[in-house]
Structure formats: C-alpha cells, structure tokens
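Input for the complex:
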Amino acid sequence: MHYKVLLIGITMDTNTKKIEDLKDIKSMMERSSRFLSLSGLSGISAGIFALIGGFIAYFIMDMGKIKYDEHFYLLQPLPFENVLLPLLILGSSVLILALGSALFFSMRKARKQGMSLWGHTTRRLLTHLFIPLITGGFFILILIDSNDVTLVASATLIFYGLALVNAGKYTFGEVHYLGISEIILGILAGIFVHYGLVFWVLGFGVLHIVYGSVMYFRYER
Amino acid sequence: MKGIISKLNKAFESRIRLGIMSVLVVNEWVDFNTLKELLDTTDGNLASHLKALEEKQFVKMKKQFIGRKPRTSYQVTETGRSLFTLHIEALENLFSNQ
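Predicted:
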C-alpha cells in the first residue's frame, strides 16, 4: 500500500514532465518519418486545374469532330494534329500547373512550420510516389502509341492511385485513402470505358478538391 | 509498482536524448545534420549526447564521404531499441495505472 502512495507522490511531481516527454516522442517520430508540409490547398488547386482541363479537353475533342456515341466514347484512331497534340499539350499544362501549385502551397506551409521543404522525408515521399507514377506514364505512352486509347483514363487513375497508396506511408495517412478511391474510380473507368473523361474529371478534379478541403479544415485552420 | 519506476531509464532523461532515440527508432540511418535540424540544437550539445548514447551502445555511428565531405550517420542498436521501447511503455503505464 505505501508503495502506491509513494508512487503517486513521485508521479505527481513529475507528471507534467512525463506527459510532455510522451508528446515529444510522438511528435518527433511523426516529424522525422513523415512529410508533413503537404498542404490541403495543393489538393484544392490541383483539382481546380483538372476540372478546367477536363472541360477544355471535352471541347477539343468536340471541335476535332471526334464523335462519341451518346456517351463520350472516343472513336479511334485519333487525328494527331487537331486532337491528340492539343490534348497532350493540355495534359502537360494541367500537370505542370498542378505540380507548381502543390509546390507553392507546400513551400508556404513548410515556412509557416519552420521546417525545410527539402529533407530526407521529402526525398523518401517523392521516390515512393514517382516509381509507380513514371511506370504508369510509360505504360500510357505505349497505349497511345499503339492507338489503344480507350483505357488511358482508367490507366491514369489506377497508376496514380497506386502511387498515392505507396507514398501514403510517408505523409498524412489520408493520402492512402485518396489513393484507394482513385484506384476504385480507375477500375470503374475501365469497366465503363464510354465515360473515361467523366471518371477522369471525378478522380483528378472532384476527389482532389474533396481531399484538399478535408485536409485544410482538419489540419491547417 | 516499484518495477514501473525502475524501468524508466535514466539514460533517456534529457530532452535531446529522448528526441534522438525517437527519431532513430522510426528511421534507418539519420545523418547528424538532419538530427540537428529536427531537434533544433547546437552541434556541441547534440554531439555530446550522441557520444553518451554511443558509449552505452544504444546507437551506432558510421562515417561516409560524399565527395570530399564527411557525413556521419546514426542508427539505433537492438539494445537501444528494446530499452527505449521499455522506457515508452513505462511512461505510458504510469498514466494508465492511476
């Protein structure tokens, strides 16, 4: 019995310090192993660029007289000059704008947190993100080259989802679930090939905006 | 009851040492400068704590040359990992037992 009294006596004195210790340990483990400067605003802006890109893509295909049946179904092969080339340029611009804004908002968040943007957590995140992503990029180029464009939307979503699941271990856990959602949309896009552009806009536009808003209100306000 | 107190390891009492161990148990090799930035401390302070942990064989060190610059990295040893885990458990038990 008097051991217990002794214990309480000791812990009363050191209670606050021990609680602080535990908090410190947890935050150090987090800070040192995960990339925490990813801003929700990056997701929102990437989503907005994707939405705009999706609408422009719709008009490019329309003006190139690419007739879908009643559901956006691309007839192939695509004429290079007035459809495929503009689409490739559009796609690259959307990618650059999305990455640029992600970088911009992450830099801002890192500065606010007093952390440097380029550290070992950043390197690890990017390596795990880009291995599936670049693989997917090459695979899609092969698809386009062999004039098999029906599964492009599906493939972009699936590889992007896999990249996010892979990278999710090294940043906020929510990224993992964003990845799973992208994979599911990608599979659906493969089943309902007629709706490729719709799924693409849902995956890269709507999902990013939803994810970004959740992250922003959860961690940054 | 007495056991819980004695499991709190004196070697981990300083803030810096607690920080070093926390970072090392969740990463493979961490270099000196990354540790310094994470723990927001000075070269001398960090070096002396690392040395103490190394002498107790809780961490091990390796030196590499990147070009001409030496880079010192640290890794937690098995002993260090298990003792640190015990230390965390002891801290947690302290609260759940009240």
